[in-house]
């Protein structure tokens, strides 16, 4: 594998996304997550290409794994991946498939894309860290608002709230594509189970960084990141 490129700035992400082509891009799903992913990897998560096996690293789960282009672009910009791999997106023998593969892609913690699985897996990861008495790492999971129609997510929300899993952060991209919505909104759904929940613009880097940096103090955290409605 070619040597990964050193870290690139946010302004390069559009160029990196344009290298990935094909009919299975799920472009709206990918672009809706772009700014959250950038803030996570640029300012929040303590993980880098040099510490992929460090048990004290932070963990990230892309539950919206069916739209991984933004994830791949950010990983490439941060040096996890060689830039050359982006142009091979979706090819038969490529590292970068239409769903991220933890065996093939450096930095990917979980093979994902079957909606409704990411949050329960992240709850398990946070519980595992607690059992190992590792209290420094955090586990962040990125979901979509339509994915919140899956019942498995609501079981995970209830368990995490009752167990006070403060290592866990769920970020939900809200592009108004859910079927029915929730009384009190998405933030209210998490808050009703004991989570600290806040809604911010999913395009505002400063607001995202502030929300994701708040002390969690015995409660899991949910950040609802609003973006333009899915067309």
From TrEMBL:
Stretches assigned to the Transketolase N-terminal domain: 26-220
InterPro entries according to UniProt: THDP-binding, Transketolase_N
Gene3D superfamilies: 3.40.50.970
Family matches, as Pfam families: Transketolase_N
Top-rank lineage group of the source organism: Bacteria
PANTHER family the record matches: TRANSKETOLASE, TRANSKETOLASE N-TERMINAL SECTION-RELATED
Name used for this protein in its record: Transketolase A subunit
Organism: Stigmatella aurantiaca (strain DW4/3-1)
